[in-house]
Amino acid sequence: MKSLREALRRLRESEAMYRNVFDNAGDIIFTVDQDTILTSLNPAFAKVSGWPEGEWTGKSFVPLVSRSDLPMADRVLQGVLQGQAIEPFVLHVLKACGEYFVGELSVTPIKQDGGVILLGICRDVTERKKMEEALRESEQRFRAIFDTAPDGIFTVSAEGKFTSSNPAVAQLVGWSFEDLAGKPYALWIHPEDLPRANQVFLDILAGQPGKVELRVRSKAGGYPFIEVSATPRYEQGSLAGALGFFRDISERKQMEEMVRNLNEALELKIQERTRQLLQAQEELIRKEKLAVLGQVVGSVGHELRNPLGVMNNAVYYLQAVLADADPTTREYLDIIREEIAGADRIVADLLDSVRTKPPQTQTVSIANLIEQTLIKLTIPAAVELRRDIPESIPPLRVDPMQMQQVFRNLICNAIDAMPEGGILEIRAFENPVVKTLSVSVRDTGVGVAEQDLPKLFQPLFTTKARGIGLGLVVVKNLTVANGGSVEVQSEPGQGALFTITLPCDHSTEKMA
After folding, report:
1. Contacts of 59 by beta carbon, 8 Å cutoff, 6+ apart
2. Is the pTM of this model over 0.85?
3. β-strands 383-388, 422-431 pairing
4. Rounded distance, CA 431 to CA 504, Å?
5. Strand partners, 214
């Protein structure tokens, strides 16, 4: 008797528990008999389908099942009644609004009153099925793109190893997925580009997409340029690596290189043309100044040289008749004579700057030319003269008088640039390749400002306190007339270096 009461108590508890689950479950719970009659439906059915509670209790479930699913529903029902194990299955169930929701069902047989009924649980999986369908369609679209895209597509794991590659990869660089599978991407990157590739991969692992141009090793050999765009790749919400796209940009790089080379060549041509135009402009200005000088120098030179000659003769006479004069008188006569000589040199420079005579060339030794020039000059005691003229230097074929005037002007300028004294260096050296001989005159004087260097050979330009700016014009005119060239290098406070370059004479003529 006691055991019977205990059994009844447990039965009531079990039924109460079942009722509680039945009434409050979120999934649909139902029972159906062998004749397809729904014997019970919990409240969840009304919430999911929109039908009023009790609307379908005691009615066949057949009208609720979509026509296409009825054969499967019948097979399931018969199978369960025959004791077969049935896996969860899907049916489309009619809602009150006329649409169908997708239900995932699990059913089990229950013996009751000598018969068998089915206990079923139905879960609304409409949204999940939509997501699965959308995912399937997305995967199909991706696969279609993956297989047919002209650009290379690949995936790598978070460890940087290839996990997939499309056929375009093999077409572009020759490597099939079998060649790449499970291997680090670093094996295919040019060593110089690997640091940039690694940085982009680190950015991707940090959640940032990236783009980079790289050289990759192709199966045929060589390193074609590719442009890689990559983005983080996620699986089940976690970062799984990178999805990358690349295209061959070797032709574009070649074109860019060609354009860059053409631009550089054009820039060089523009610079050279600009330099030539500036030189032409300077030469035009120089010639214009010389033309102006030429209009007045002839008459002015004649008018000045006559009185200078008279004055020089007068000083010579006075020095002769006043040989016993006091020191002050003799000193002033020397000053007058030096000033007359200076004025005569100015007149000579004026004439030489505008009417350079054709050179009367001879075969001469550069050592003799320098020696004859120095004999006619007075080197101050504070100036140390250094000469470096090798005996093996070949002779020149020049006008000795004109070249002596060139070297005289350069040496005088060097002395004037060192009022406190310094070093005057005269050096000669040969360039046997181009068969030229160069003579340099270097001083340790005040030097020339950079902006003044291009103006030194222009008429009427001078950096001296005294002078009319024609000495270097004469130097250039006479040097060019003898087939040579002149260059200058200087910095303020570092002195100046003038270099005269002339063609050598390799004939056997006797040197003058």
Report:
1. 37, 38
2. no
3. parallel
4. 9
5. 226
